[in-house]
Amino acid sequence: MTTFFDTCWYCALFYNHDPKYPQKKVTDLSEPLTPRCSWHSDYKCDICEKDNHFNGTAWCDKCKQWFCIKCAAKIQIKKERFWGYDYYFELECPECKNNYPALDYAEYCGKHPYQLQAVEIQERKSSEKGRSDSSIASPRLDDFLISNFGVGVFAFKQRGNIEDYSPQETWNKLADQWAPNYGKYGDNNHQYWILPTLFKQLGNVEGLTILDGGTGEGYLARLLAQKGANVYGIDISEEMLGYAIKREESDPLGIQYIHGSLAEMAMFEDNFFDLVVANMMIFNAQEFEKIFSEIHRVLRPSGKFAFSILHPIKVVMSSLRRPRSTFRMEEQTYLLSDYYDERPILATFTHTSHPDVIYPRTISQYINQLVDSGFEVVRFEEPLPSEEGIKKVPWKYLNRHYPFCCWFFTKKKE
């Protein structure tokens, strides 16, 4: 009798679209939800020497080597319908510069190196992988709330209270783990997903006096200053500000950095700023009402306030990526849990040692508090990744089916 674990996940998937597709023996049970055969397991890239999913791996017939999507000299997204998909990745070998399809489409065309007998089939055993089960991200679902829950990028722990949490102390500890990862435009998410919407909506900022709230290591403050603005940056973390100040000292742009909180800005007089920007930080603030009130005070009449947050849907959304290593974002299932649950969440990134706090709020809570604080909401944006981002990092941004962040663009009422 054939059981679930006797059938390769991908062989069964392809069989649904082609009844003649052969079912191969399962050799990899490292992820029990997606048992796989040797053809559809991970392949070790001969360049970076890391295991990579077959749909992001190609075989270079000239160099006689496997290479992955992250090592490819160039990535192209080719539109083609096959086995339920509507595209495949074409990868350029970093050594010979020849182009080759990823192994899923190569197999469909009869050009997989195993089909051509160009290389011996490698039996990938579960013991070789040593990975955990498929990546399940669920900060909410009671079935998964044991203590900490790892999701590959985050580890979540939901708590009823956070009396022992200090944002200033936490970000001082995290500074050396976060700041070095940020370049001119921050990280990929900021460059390709978050910032394009901000700059499109702000337009010309030359000559404006701007406050960058939660400035961190100062990358956004520098971008605004390079556009001709008179910029101030404020942050609760002295260590993060240390990175910003060092950059200002080595490449002066006239930015003034201040240690402090957006909720208490006595150092600024009323009606001081033309624009306040708070990029991806207000969801980390417990007393956001005080922040809105203080920002309203320091803004000039008709001054603008723009802020981005993790999308409230993203915060309460659970996901199951099957299998964990796939480069196809569409192979991800989403579960929405309690959108109205306001219990704080401790979120730890895999490259950091200390958790940060996320305060879940609904979109209406943000809008209503803005109105109560004297703001008019001019525009609300739920951006998609930019075309440039999709081209450069397609395995992260292509076929995203849920919102990652959102922007509120407001102005101070007369």
The count of β-strands is 23
| Overall SS class | alpha+beta
The number of helical segments is 12
Overall pLDDT score: 85
CATH topology of the largest domain: Rossmann fold
CATH class of the largest domain: Alpha Beta
Q: What portion of the residues fall into strands of 2 or more residues?
A: 25-35%
Q: Cα distance, first to last residue?
A: 75 Å
Low-confidence stretches: 125-156
Tell me what the structure shows.
The protein has two domains: about 5-130, no CATH class; about 135-410, Rossmann fold, CATH 3.40.50. It is built from twelve helices and 23 strands. The chain has helices at about 10-15, 105-110, 125-130, 165-180, 190-200, 220-225, 240-250, 290-300, 310-315, 365-370, 385-390, 395; strands at about 25-30, 35, 40-45, 50-55, 55-60, 65-70, 75-80, 85-90, 100, 135, 150, 155-160, 210-215, 230-235, 255-260, 275-280, 300-310, 315-320, 330-335, 345-350, 355-360, 375-380, 405-410. The strands form seven sheets. It has a seven-stranded mixed β-sheet, sandwiched between helices. Strand 14 (about 230-235), helix 7 and strand 15 form a beta-alpha-beta unit. Helix 4 (about 165-180) packs across helix 7. The longest helix has 15 residues, at about 190-200. Mean pLDDT is about 85; it is low at about 125-155.
Short description:
The protein is 25% helix and 28% strand.
Task: Please supply descriptive tags for the structure shown above.
single chain; 23 strands; 25% helix; seven-stranded mixed sheet; 414 residues; Rossmann fold; alpha+beta; 2 domains; four-stranded antiparallel sheet
